[in-house]
Specification:
two-stranded antiparallel ribbon; 2% strand; disordered C terminus; disordered N terminus
C-alpha cells in the first residue's frame, strides 16, 4: 500500500493557473487518508523483525528483535549475578582469614602475657634450649671475630698502600740523589718486597673473612630463622593447649562439647607443627656444628700459617700457604671500579 501511495505521489501532476497559483487537486483527500492509514498501521519499532532468508524468502527465518533484547538482558543479568557471587565469595574468604588470624593472635598474646607474669605453663625442651643458647652465644663471639678481622684487613690494606707509595718515593730519590743512590735503592727494594708479601697476606685474610662471614650471616642465620619459627610454633601450641585445658574444666553441655572437639583438633594441628619444627631444629643444629668445626679448622690453619710466614719474612712459605688452600690472588687494581661504574 505504501508503494502505491509513493508511486501515486511521484506521478501526480500539479496544474498551475494563469495567475501562477496552484489549482486544487482532486486526489488530495484520498492521498492524505492513505498517508494517515500508513502511519497508523505502520510497523512498530519495538516489534521490528530481522529477515534471515533473503529477499522474497519465507517467514521461517524471521527473528523478532524483542526476543534478542530479552535474551541479551538475561545474559547481562546472569553475568552480573555471577560477578557478584564471586566477589561475595572472595570477601567471605578474606573475612574468615582475618577472623582466624585475630583469634590466633589473641590466644598467643594471652599465652605470652601469662608466661611473663608466671601464671601460665610453657613447654620446655631443656636439651634443645641449651643448644640454642650455645648457638646464639657462639654467633655473637664469631661476629666479634669477623668485626676484628675486617678491621685488621682495612688497617693492613692501608699499610700496604703506604709501603707501596714509600717504595716509589725511595726509587725516585735514588735516581735524583747520586750520593745516596744505593741507600735509597735498598730501601725501595725492601718496601716493594714488603708490599708484595702484604698483598699476598691480604689475599689470605680476605679469604678468611669471607668464609667467616658466610658461616655467621648465612649458615648460622638460616638455623636461627628455623629456631624463630620453632619458638613461634611452641607458643601457639601452648596457647591452644591452655585453651583446651580451660574448656575441659567447664560444663559438658552440647555447645561446650562441640567447642572442646574443635579445640582438640586445633591442639593436635599445632602439636604436629611444633614437633615437626623441633625435629628440624635438632637436625640443623647437628649439621651446623659439624660444618662449623670443618670450616673453622681450615680457616684457622690458613690464618695461622699466613700470618706466621709473613712476619717471618718467608715469602716462599706464604705463597705455598695460598696454594695449599687454593686461593688465587687478584691482580693489583682489580678491586677498583671501572670507568663505567664510576659515578
Amino acid at each position: 500500500m505504501a508503494d502505491s501511495i509513493m508511486s501515486k505521489a511521484a506521478t501526480m501532476e500539479i496544474p498551475i493557473n494563469s495567475n501562477g497559483d496552484t489549482g486544487t487537486l482532486p486526489e488530495d483527500d484520498s492521498l492524505e487518508q492513505d498517508l494517515q492509514q500508513v502511519m497508523v498501521s505502520g510497523p512498530n519499532l519495538n516489534e521490528t523483525s530481522i529477515v534471515s532468508g533473503g529477499y522474497g524468502g519465507t517467514t521461517e527465518g524471521i527473528i523478532p528483535t524483542s526476543s534478542i533484547k530479552g535474551s541479551s538482558m538475561q545474559h547481562s543479568s546472569s553475568n552480573s549475578s555471577m560477578a557478584d557471587d564471586a566477589s561475595r565469595g572472595v570477601a567471605v574468604e578474606k573475612l574468615d582469614f582475618v577472623k582466624k588470624w585475630g583469634l590466633n593472635t589473641y590466644k598467643c598474646t594471652k599465652q605470652m602475657i601469662s608466661e611473663r607474669f608466671g601464671r601460665g605453663s610453657r613447654t620446655v625442651d631443656l636439651e634443645l634450649e641449651a643448644q640454642i643458647d650455645v648457638l646464639r652465644d657462639t654467633k655473637r663471639k664469631y661476629e666479634n671475630v669477623l668485626r676484628l678481622a675486617r678491621a685488621l684487613t682495612n688497617h693492613f690494606y692501608s699499610m700496604v698502600q703506604t709501603q707501596h707509595a714509600l717504595g716509589d718515593t725511595f726509587a725516585d730519590l735514588s735516581q735524583k740523589s747520586p750520593e745516596l743512590r744505593d741507600e735509597f735503592g735498598y730501601n725501595a727494594e725492601t718496601q716493594k718486597l714488603l708490599c708484595k708479601n702484604g698483598e699476598t697476606l691480604l689475599g689470605a685474610v680476605n679469604f678468611f673473612v669471607s668464609s667467616i662471614n658466610t658461616l655467621v650471616n648465612k649458615t648460622m642465620e638460616d638455623t636461627l630463622m628455623t629456631i624463630k619459627m620453632y619458638e613461634s610454633a611452641r607458643l601457639e601450641f601452648d596457647a591452644y593447649r591452655a585453651d583446651l585445658e580451660e574448656l575441659s574444666l567447664g560444663p559438658r553441655d552440647a555447645v561446650t562439647m562441640a567447642r572442646i572437639d574443635y579445640a582438640q583438633q586445633q591442639y593436635q594441628v599445632h602439636k604436629d607443627k611444633y614437633e615437626r619444627l623441633r625435629s628440624d631444629v635438632t637436625i640443623k643444629l647437628k649439621f651446623l656444628e659439624e660444618n662449623k668445626v670443618k670450616v673453622m679448622h681450615k680457616q684457622l690453619l690458613l690464618f695461622h700459617n699466613a700470618i706466621s710466614a709473613y712476619f717471618a719474612g718467608n715469602q716462599q712459605q706464604l705463597e705455598q700457604t695460598l696454594k695449599q688452600f687454593n686461593i688465587k690472588l687478584k691482580p693489583p687494581g682489580s678491586e677498583q671500579p671501572s670507568w663505567l661504574e664510576e659515578p
